[in-house]
């Protein structure tokens, strides 16, 4: 009797579903960052608008990277439907708080995928997601640093203007590698 | 006229139905409530997911008449199932058991392939 479950792909149903859920999460993150970019633009935070637009592009690229992997492995990659995206935010600071929250959620999600890969003994996918795990260090760092600028500079007077100017300059330096 | 017998292997049979596998067409045949439905593996897994996601307890507890039945229709399956609570329980058990046997078959294939290397 043929093994119909693995006729086309070595991905298990669980891993394929998990990766498709992550594809959706990345697409939602991309849409969320774009909404944040729009909010910043509407409220005069030019530099942050550009920063969030760039973040949105990055999230979409992550989504496509996952999408290609599922397809390349013979699985069924699903183009996700995105629900309503929040378009209004309480304050400039609130935008960055939500961005950090989002990045932490993504890190946790990739940790869960890694865990599931090990349980399923899918080391090919485990090896593939190493890139994302590493990428999350930078993503979280940048989001955290941006939020810390609010403490360092303060929002009084021209504070928000200064914060806005400094946001795109945040760089993660991986000093101990390469 | 030349007739070709369809070779099917039984995956699982319960009191209410059965799931067979056709190695020639790589399809699954679900025999349930007097009908046979031919499904691709993806459609079979999708059907299982939809049936699993139905809250049977909520159906049983609800006094609303619309809760007596559930309509199940999935992409890739030309049949629309209209099922009572009892039928849903039976179908859920049948699909889960068949899925388990398919996974077992998969594991056997893995073991046999590992032996050959």
UniProtKB/TrEMBL annotation, chain A:
Show the catalytic activity: 4 Fe(2+) + O2 + 6 H2O = 4 iron(III) oxide-hydroxide + 12 H(+)
Domain Ferritin-like diiron: where? 9-154
List the Pfam families hit by this protein, alphabetically. Ferritin (PF00210)
GO BP term (any one): intracellular iron ion homeostasis
What EC number(s) does the entry state?
1.16.3.2
Compartment(s) where it occurs, according to its Swiss-Prot or TrEMBL record: Cytoplasm
Q: Which SUPFAM superfamilies match?
A: Ferritin-like
Molecular function (Gene Ontology), one example: ferric iron binding
- Keyword tags: Cytoplasm, Iron, Iron storage, Metal-binding, Oxidoreductase
> What InterPro entries does this protein map onto?
Ferritin, Ferritin-like, Ferritin-like_diiron, Ferritin-like_SF, Ferritin_DPS_dom, Ferritin_prok
Q: Which domain of life is it from?
A: Bacteria
What is any one of the record's Gene Ontology cellular component terms? cytoplasm
Q: What class of enzyme is it?
A: oxidoreductase
Q: Which family does it belong to?
A: Belongs to the ferritin family. Prokaryotic subfamily.
Q: Which PANTHER family match?
A: BACTERIAL NON-HEME FERRITIN, FERRITIN
Q: What does this protein do?
A: Iron-storage protein.
Q: Report the protein name in the record.
A: Ferritin
TrEMBL record, chain B:
Q: Which domain of life is it from?
A: Bacteria
Its recorded name reads Uncharacterized protein
């Amino acid at each position: 009797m043929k093994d119909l479950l693995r006729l086309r792909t070595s991905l298990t149903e669980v891993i394929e579903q998990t990766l498709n859920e992550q594809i959706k999460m990345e697409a939602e993150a991309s849409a969320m960052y774009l909404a944040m970019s729009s909010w910043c633009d509407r409220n005069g935070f030019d530099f942050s608008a550009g920063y969030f637009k760039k973040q949105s592009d990055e999230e979409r690229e992550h989504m496509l990277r996952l999408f290609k992997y599922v397809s390349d492995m013979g699985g069924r990659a699903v183009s996700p439907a995105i629900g309503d995206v929040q378009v209004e935010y309480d304050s400039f600071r609130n935008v960055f708080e939500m961005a950090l929250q989002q990045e932490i959620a993504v890190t946790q999600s990739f940790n869960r995928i890694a865990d599931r890969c090990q349980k399923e003994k899918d080391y090919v996918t485990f090896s593939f997601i190493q890139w994302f795990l590493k990428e999350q260090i930078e993503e979280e760092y940048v989001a955290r640093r941006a939020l810390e600028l609010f403490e360092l500079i303060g929002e009084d007077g021209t504070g928000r203007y200064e914060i806005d100017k400094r946001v795109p300059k945040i760089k993660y330096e991986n000093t101990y590698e390469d | 006229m030349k007739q070709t017998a369809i070779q099917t292997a039984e995956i699982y049979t319960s009191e209410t139905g059965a799931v067979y596998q056709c190695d020639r067409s790589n399809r699954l045949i679900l025999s349930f409530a007097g009908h046979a439905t031919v499904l691709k593996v993806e459609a079979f897994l999708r059907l299982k997911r939809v049936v699993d996601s139905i809250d049977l307890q909520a159906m049983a507890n609800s006094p609303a008449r619309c809760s007596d039945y559930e309509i199940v229709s999935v992409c890739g399956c030309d049949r629309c199932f209209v099922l009572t609570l009892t039928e849903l329980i039976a179908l859920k058990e049948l699909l889960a058991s068949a899925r388990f046997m398919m996974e077992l078959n998969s594991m056997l294939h893995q073991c046999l392939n590992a032996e050959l290397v």
